[in-house]
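User: I'm putting together a small comparison set for a docking exercise, and I want a reference complex before I start. The sequence is below, and the ligand is adenosine-5'-diphosphate. Could you produce the 3D structure with the ligand included, as structure tokens?
Assistant: Of course. I'll restate your input first, then give the structure tokens for the complex.
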Amino acid sequence: MKILVINCGSSSLKFQLIDSDSEAVICKGLCERIGIEGSQIVYTPTGKDKITKVEPMPDHNRAIELVIEALTNSENGVVSLDEIGAVGHRIVHGGEKFTKSVVIDDEVIKAIEDVSDLAPLHNPANLIGIRACQKVMPGVPMVAVFDTAFHQTMPQEAYLYGLPYSYYEKYGIRRYGFHGTSHSFVSKRAAEILGKNPADLKMIVCHLGNGASLSAVDGGKCVDTSMGLTPLEGLIMGTRTGDIDPSVVEFVMKKENSTVADVTNLLNKKSGVFGLSDNLSSDFRDLEAGYNEGHAGARRAVDAFVYRVVKYIGSYTAAMGGVDVICFTAGVGENSGFVRKLICDRLGFIGAKMDAEANKVRGEEKVISTADSKVTLLVVPTNEELAIARDTYALCK
Ligand code: ADP
């Protein structure tokens, strides 16, 4: 079966067409600037050159039409419309309602709407993507795959904030966690690579990308993760603060005479390693170059980033009463031997030893610890689209 995987943002739409038998990507691409002037679709049928078409896209319906057109046109299309057997949608927030992927029906759409206040930028966009697909591909089954679902096994002691309990009961204020599709995929794959049963492993998955989060996975189940009510909590990220004292918000508002929206923007878009490096960059390739050239901001940012990751690894080791495997994934985790080394150099306290030669790896599955290391260090490239395609196939075949 050919599965179309859709990741719909407010003004963008990423897609991949995946063959569920071979798990090969047949085509992938992106619609950019939907609803904004200058919109375009960029896509690459596997094995062919990248194609860019500048086309007006007043809304997501038009974007989906263009995706279908790109996939099926007679010149460089890759399938016929009736070959697309199902669509998998990435949905950011499933609240407490969704603990696994589900086939989309009216009730599911309503439930995704009901938790939209928890992800006001993402869930409405995800819903627009679902509705646009329903319109353009009526009758094709669709599946919702939630970023939050994998983390629903967290115990109450890990997901509650120290707020009055009534705020959890009334408003659902708690820690949910994100990147769940990636944490789930990587932790399962790591067990496969090591030839072990997930039930026998205590794992920490470090998803280090532009957005970054850690999860503690004990016996195959998530028991803690670093993101919270929103993806702002936890690690220092590309442009997000991660953990801060909430009093910073009021303090900055008073000092700068700014609004809550201004400070929220500051915490999400201008902070993290970008802000710490004095706006040098949020990209770790630039930060690594700056670090090696002795750029003070780059050093400060990278050191703070690494420190926070190590601190979380320590706390998750304590939470699980030990750790067997630490996995690195996502843009930085898969590609930056530099960042991995800085992190692992500080993990001697749990008996982790990195193999410097093996750590030269980039974007490939590889054990990067020495034979005598007490903890297995592992690079596992994530593949959220494949994980979505697998769930979609499993529910629609
Ligand atoms: P997201 O999906 O959150 O946007 P990704 O997982 O794609 O993020 O990661 C993107 C980040 O990965 C980039 O901002 C960059 O910092 C980092 N990255 C990508 N390639 C490399 C590399 N070769 N070396 C260091 N960092 C890299």
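Residues 296-320 form the longest helix (25 residues). The chain has a mean pLDDT of 96.
User: Thanks, that's exactly what I needed.
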